[in-house]
Specification:
about 30% helix; globular
């Protein structure tokens, strides 16, 4: 069930879709939104950059909205930009509040006072992760089989390097879900990579290490090239593709509403 947030002058950091969905898949997006708190102005970043991949996972919210409804899966998403605080980085690491991304400066993140850092963690990062924890606790109490799916999009070029993949399936030491998902997606029209263009970084990353591996839950991270989901037609198409793959994974691993993997 959604947790109650204390009032903020800006948007609630947590966005919910189908919170009572019965699917075994819990979808989460750490970089779904690009809101910036009014107290921070524009962080010294242009409007174009605040709409680009350095600030938001382009197309992922709409894609997961479709996927959530197709699967009847609960979806929890962060409304604030990763430039304000990256919800998939451990607070305190350099990438948590970056001063530069893909060669572009983030002036508003230079010399951040300790109190301001604490505010961003307390009022933006923590409510989002509390919402995920509450959802997982409720599902565990109800003995509902759960797979945590961290959903992201990535840019075709980053830091001067080209990425040829269309979909990345990313995992930590627990590989059952990723293996099944790679099997379900492999051999089709999309170029699918294991742990591409990223792997799980247990030193810096947060969502899968803490909520997935940390709880002993089956978990996986999905990365979709933003070129494929910039527009509505592509978002619907990828949602349909992932729905079919997720259902195949649930059947092959016997993941259901109660018990299961």
């Amino acid at each position: 069930m959604p947790i109650e947030m204390r009032a903020l002058p800006d948007p609630n950091p947590v966005m919910y879709i189908r919170p009572d969905g019965v699917s075994p898949f819990l979808l989460v997006s750490d970089h779904a939104g690009n809101a910036v708190p009014s107290r921070l102005g524009d962080l010294g970043v242009s409007a174009a950059d605040r709409e680009d991949h350095i600030a938001i996972d382009i197309g992922i919210f709409a894609t997961c909205n479709w996927l959530s409804h197709r699967l009847d899966a609960p979806y929890i998403a962060q409304a604030y930009s990763r430039l304000v605080i990256d919800s998939n980085r451990r607070p305190g690491v350099a990438a948590s509040m970056p001063t530069e991304s893909d060669g572009r400066a983030i002036p508003g993140n230079r010399g951040i006072a300790a109190a301001e850092r604490e505010w961003r963690v307390r009022d933006i990062f923590q409510p989002y992760h509390d919402a995920i924890a509450v959802a997982l606790d409720a599902r565990a109490a109800a003995e509902r089989g759960t797979v945590l799916c961290a959903m992201h999009s990535f840019t075709r070029h980053m830091d001067g390097f080209a990425r040829p993949w269309d979909i990345g399936v990313i995992h930590g030491p627990s590989t059952a879900v990723a293996d099944a998902l790679l099997g379900a997606l492999g051999g089709g029209e999309f170029r699918v990579g294991r742990n591409e263009p990223y792997g799980v970084d247990f030193t810096n990353d947060y969502t899968i290490p803490v909520h997935g591996e940390g709880r002993g839950l089956p978990s996986v991270e999905i990365e979709i090239c933003q070129d494929l989901i910039r527009e509505d037609a592509g978002q619907r198409r990828l949602a349909a593709t992932l729905e079919a793959a997720f259902r195949q994974v649930a059947d092959s691993l016997n993941i259901g509403a109660k018990g299961g993997t």
